[in-house]
Amino acid sequence: MTAFKFSAADTRLVTATGPGLVADNRFAVSPSRLTDESAGVLKVHDTGGTRSVAVRLLPAPGVPADVVVVPAALVHEHRVTPEEGWELVSADAITPGVLELELPPGPSLDEATTVLHGAPLLCGHVFAHGFETSPDVWIDASSTLFRVRQALDHGGRPLRGLFRIGPETRLTLFAPGERSGVDIVVLADCSGSMSIEDIPAAPSDGDKWLSRLRTSATISRMNALKDALGAMIDARMRYDGVGTRFALVRFDHDHEPMFPSRWGMEEVSDAHSVQRLREAVSLLNYRQSGTDIGKALHKAGELLHRYGVPGNERLVVLVSDGAHYAPIPDERSGESVSGTQDPVSLMEDLHAGLGIRLHVVGISDEALFDRWWQAQRHRPGWTPQAHESMVPNHRMLGELVTVAGGDRQRIGGLDVLEKYFAELGSGVVRAVGRPARPRLPALQLTPEQLAAKPQRRAATDPRQRRTWEAAAEDALVAYSRVCEASRARLGYQLLRSSPPDDFARLRRQCADRADFTAWLSVAYQVFNERLHTPLRIPKKDPAKVLDLPQLAAPFWDGRMSQLHELRNFYHHDRDMAERAERNRIAGGIIHKHTGSYAPLEDDAGAWRALQLGLVRDLAALLNEAHAILDAAPDPEAAPEEPPAAARVGPAAAGGIRIKSQGYD
């Protein structure tokens, strides 16, 4: 990775809009500064501290060495001031082994899988995840947003930090239980090795002090399986209205149904069926016999084919300590795997022909077994080398998962089992596969646009500067007066307080379109988003929603809505039909203040005129609102009368009602 650092001191930010190479969090830089694609961090400094944004850095021919091309939407969202307060550095990123995303509202599991399969910009995407204070992280795949649930290493352990999706990253998709119907056949290994007590016991709340003294307490593999199945039942029962059919099958050298009691599948949807499933789990027990995984898988495929619900996910969950898949002569003791068909080939056929997916849960592992086996050395007949039929062996389980779509494989003790089955109860995970080969679009700016020097540094007419400063000051003074008057007359502020750095940004005069849109974001937050909620949207009858209905006149006459319309125009342009309508409305506002419908990007005079016109309108609006508030009766001096909420009819429309709360 090429290490570098850009900052406002030596680099120009050039913004890009519309589809193209620079969008989302993708930045373009000069190939002379960056030879290969890299992860990076944009650091934005202001009075509130430093914010860090994960970005994807791409070398692009034609970009000058002193330029970084950035998405306009990202600049606006994070309030990046192009000429100060930022720096861009390269950074090392982790490539996750598994990236689990959540199924978004709308598409089905199949549709969402197809979207992820074909997303051309997913491979290489950079994001940060796993920090407690971080909000949810969303990844845009072909205009569909997927929430990141977790990033795992190749061993299934959770990761956190800065990530870059690589070609080897395995994508999985989690469908929550309320959205996913799934038909599940659980194959429970009940062979003789499941009697081995090498699983550390989980202490109950009342026995924690005792467990600290008896750290060697263990339970059998069979009891660990039964506890984990109980966790699955508890979790799945929290979701109503989802068509899920279930079967529990015990197997060793043969197999038999446990739930339902005869061969078939049953929907677990009421207290009676839940109770019967719990009873079936409690009846599971091991036998001193061999293991035929192939026969059990064949039966599971038959159950899903004959009794499953069309459209539901088809899932087999194989729970085993891992038997050796090699015939063992009769004269040798211990378990053997028998069967007329190779389980791996059989599972491959079931996946390809019936769409059946497989999760495997490997009970115990070599470390747990070795610890337990060494503790048995005092027993008669103990040998340093345990019989191979006792030792967990998960090699074939991994091969089964690979041919069945690459879904979940979990190996470990009781904590691993309970976590897996609780998650299975809350939803279903589907393996999507590797991300598609990246196909990057072209940079949407021409060489002329990249090379053009900004005009924003030209000397400003002192008279224009004084005019702007006076207008901005008028607006902010009016803002303060409205806050004070509304608090005195209504009992709350019409405009919620804003941080000082927002006012500092509002005072800055813009020089081009990028400056203006950044300023517009702040102005919209201060004057629109923090406005008393009933005043934000005009209603037919202001007396029904406003404590002082006269305020509707200045706030609803169109001057405040200018901020809303321009913000939508510059920030939301994906829907072309909406874009055309916004273009018409925004064009009218711009023409009103500048005499032009579409100023050039670097026409400083036009953007300053637009900014000045909006500020003057806001100042006038707020002064009118202050006059209305000032003329309203002082609540302390008002004569005693019935509560405002009790007044009805026309008399209430011209009065004033006092509320203790400020916002809806």
Automatic annotation (TrEMBL):
Official protein name in the record: VWA domain-containing protein
Entries under SUPFAM superfamilies matching the protein: vWA-like (SSF53300)
Stretches with biased composition (Low complexity): 643-655
Region (Disordered): 634-664
Organism phylogeny: Bacteria, Bacillati, Actinomycetota, Actinomycetes, Kitasatosporales
Superkingdom of origin organism: Bacteria
Annotated VWFA domain residues: 183-365
InterPro entries on file: VWF_A (IPR002035), vWFA_dom_sf (IPR036465)
Source organism: Streptomyces maoxianensis
